Amino acid sequence: MKRQYDLDWIRVLATLAVFIYHCFMFFNLWAWHVKNTETDPTYITTISLFMSTWLMPIFFAVSGINSYYALKKRTGSQYLKERLARLGIPLVFGVMILTPPQIYMERVSHAQFAGSFFNMEIR
């Protein structure tokens, strides 16, 4: 079975679009962890609305197509084990390493906390 380079490129472009979408979240009208209210969000909100309509369906479609091809080459248990290793490890890393600084910045920016990062309580 040949590699599906078109699906790879769709995934690359969609990932780039997700990065841009999340960068726009600082400036549009929706609630977000940290906001910048100094700019006019009209165009950014319009672009964000368009992107939010298409990004997740693109990822679900590409994921379904890739799962279809992956299950042709391996058993269900092999597939689940591979998915757990490829997705579970980054998920645990994100929850344990990336989320605490994000919560700290959100609390400081909303005047909900004034201490240092290492003085935060775990609740």
Written description of the protein model:
With 123 residues, this protein is mostly helical. The relative contact order is 0.09. The chain folds into two domains: 1-73; 75-123, no CATH class. The radius of gyration is 19 Å and the shape is flat. The chain is 70% helix and 0% strand.
Topology (elements, then pairings):
Layout: H1 5-24, H2 42-73, H3 76-109
Helix pairs in contact: 1-2
Write a brief structural summary.
The chain has 123 residues and is mainly alpha-helical.
Give the overall pLDDT as a whole number: 88
Low-confidence stretches: none
**Rg over alpha carbons:** 19 Å
What is the overall shape?
A: flat
How many H/I helices?
3
Distance from first to last alpha carbon? 50 Å
Number of domains: 2
Helix and strand composition category: mainly alpha
Listing every helix as H and every strand as E from the N terminus to the C terminus, the arrangement reads HHH
> Helix amount, in percent?
55-70%
| Biggest sheet features | none
Task: Provide the β-strand percentage band.
Answer: under 5%
User: What is the total tally of β strands?
Assistant: 0
List keywords for this structure.
3 helices, 123 residues, mainly alpha
